[in-house]
Design goal:
The structure holds 2 protein chains of 2 kinds. Chain A is an all-alpha fold. Chain A has one domain: Helix Hairpins (Orthogonal Bundle). Helix content of chain A is about 75%, strand content about 0%. Chain A has 3 helices and no strands. The longest helix of chain A is centred in the last third of the chain and has 31 residues, at about 60-90. The radius of gyration of chain A is 17 Å and the shape is elongated. By secondary structure, chain B is mostly helical. Chain B is built from 7 helices and no strands. Chain B has helices at about 1-20, 25-45, 50-75, 85-110, 120-125, 130-140, 140-160. In chain B, helix 2 (about 25-45) packs antiparallel against helix 3 (about 50-75). The chains are: A mainly alpha, B mainly alpha. Chains A and B meet through helix 1, helix 2 and helix 3 of A and helix 1, helix 2, helix 3, helix 5 and helix 6 of B.
Amino acid sequence: MSVPVEFYMVLSGLVFIIGLVGVLVRKNLIIILLSIELMLNATNINFVAFSSHFGNLAGQVFVFFALTVAAAEVAVGLAIIIALYRHHASINVDDFRLLKW
Amino acid sequence: MGTFVFLYFAAVIVMAASLVVVLRNPIYSALSLLVMFFHVAGLYVTLHAEFLAAIQIIVYAGAILVLYLFVVMLLNVKRDERYNRQGTVALFLGVVLLTEAVLLAVSRGFTVATPDPGPEGAARAVGNTESIGEVLYSTYLFPFEIASLILLVAMIGAVILSKKGIMG
């Protein structure tokens, strides 16, 4: 393998940090969900890079499970967003204080 | 050559990811995420995970992103809401975490253990899809079944949540 695995770690860390910043900074609920997808993809890159580096296929299998969780998260999250929008006519996180103490 | 290809993919991935966070219109953000998914799939191909690359395009770009675009266009939110105002806290935490990361990387040495080359050749000889299938259906059979259960629960939850009159 020509590319050292550290490069993939740096790339994965960068993408993860971008996703984290997106979750913390944006107010639009849909963008927050998209940023969570970014973070899941960052972990997937790491999984596949290490799977190739160590010659162990378990990493690629775990990407499948991460994919399953991502799909479930998207389905439930978007359903919640639709329910919220129907009730409050907004998807701005500042408008929702139901669980805020 | 391999490094060059990696650098191209990495640059596009980081740029598309930044655009997802920065762009104002959710549709453009979703399309930028689509670009990122395709390049991550390309990265998987260079890592000899061809089956995962196909799955990445089919599931992420084909299913998940279509769901996103569907909801974005269904809600049709035009209002311009932007960033939270938390600059000082963010700056403080960012500096602390960055210092910690740099210190860790410097003190521990930023290297990864070299692999033993034994099982890799064996896994390559059969082909990516077949070897993944064997591992998935033997070693990880129970987590696989749990994953199907997660999908079932998510499906029922999504149907119930998006029913009319769920929130009072």
